[in-house]
Every structure is written in C-alpha cells, then in structure tokens.
User: Which sequence fits this backbone?
C-alpha cells in the first residue's frame, strides 16, 4: 500500500503541482492550488484508510487461523 501512495504522490508532483516556491499570482492559480491541496489531503486520507483496512484484514485472518488451530481444524478450506 505504501508503494501505491508513493506512486500517487509522484504522479501528482509530476502532473499537477505548481512551483512550490511561487505564490499564486491570480485567482485561477489560487483556485488550482486550493483544489490540488484538497485533492492531496483527500488522497492521503483514502490511502491511510486503505492501509488501515489492510492491517485489520491481516489481523482478522490471523485471529481466524488461531481460532481454527484452537478448535483442532487445520486449513481445510471452505465446506462444500
């Protein structure tokens, strides 16, 4: 998931960023800057949530495996 975040950040930097040293010179540049800033914030939040969900799924899988081991069930797969 971190690779995805780095790839998205790189794409944003290459394609959408304004010169970070330059102040917006007109309303259009200011609007573009604000939209980009909001987009980056939302993207970061989404990636963080995806990472958290991945971690929760990993924890759930481990818990299920532990419960199966305690019950004496080896990884037999789903019942048919």
Assistant:
């Amino acid at each position: 998931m971190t690779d995805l975040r780095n790839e998205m950040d790189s794409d944003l930097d290459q394609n959408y960023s304004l010169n970070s040293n330059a102040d917006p010179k007109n309303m259009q540049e200011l609007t573009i800057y604000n939209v980009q800033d909001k987009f980056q914030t939302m993207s970061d939040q989404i990636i963080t949530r995806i990472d958290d969900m991945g971690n929760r799924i990993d924890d759930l899988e481990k818990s299920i495996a532990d419960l199966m081991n305690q019950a004496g069930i080896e990884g037999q797969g789903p019942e048919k």
Summary: The first helix runs from residue 2 to 15.
